[in-house]
Amino acid sequence: MDAGKQNEVKIESEISKELASMPLTVKCPTCRTEVSWEGNPHRPFCSERCRLIDLGAWAGGKYRVPGEKLGEESEGSKKENNDDDEEPA
Ligand SMILES: [Zn+2]
Fold first, then answer.
1. Who's near 53: CB < 8 A, 6+ residues apart?
2. How do residues 15-74 score in pLDDT, each as one tens digit?
3. DSSP secondary structure letters along the chain
4. pLDDT of 11-22, one tens digit each?
5. Distance from the alpha carbon of residue 39 to the mean position of ligand 1, in angstroms
6. From ligand 1's centre to the CA of 60, what distance in Å?
7. CB of 4 closer than 8 Å to CB of 18
8. Where do the structural domains in the chain lie, given as residue ranges?
9. Under CATH, to which class is 20-61 assigned?
10. 37 CA distance to ligand 1 centroid (A)?
11. What's the pLDDT score for residue 14?
């Protein structure tokens, strides 16, 4: 029983060692430049410019998910019901 527990601990320390030796960098989603994650105020982007470009792409609908529409019909019938209630008979 003890042997299994020891093995688990060993694996965990191996993983943390690997993470520590890896440089913490991310690829800027806009220009694909590798930038360091730590101490980067614009992460995951390399600069404010790239951040704004990405925001603009979202606003322009470049990344819009197709085929997603809210049910307008059901909402319309609900409103009609409310109007009926308010009208004094
Ligand atoms: Zn960039």
1. 30
2. 677 666 666 899 999 999 999 998 999 989 999 999 999 888 877 776 666 676 666 555
3. -HHHHHHHHHHHHHHHHHHHHS--EEE-TTT--EEESTT-TTTTSSSHHHHHHHHHHHHTTTTPPTT----HHHHHHHHHHHHHHHS--
4. 778 767 766 666
5. 16
6. 19
7. no
8. 20-61
9. alpha beta
10. 13
11. 77
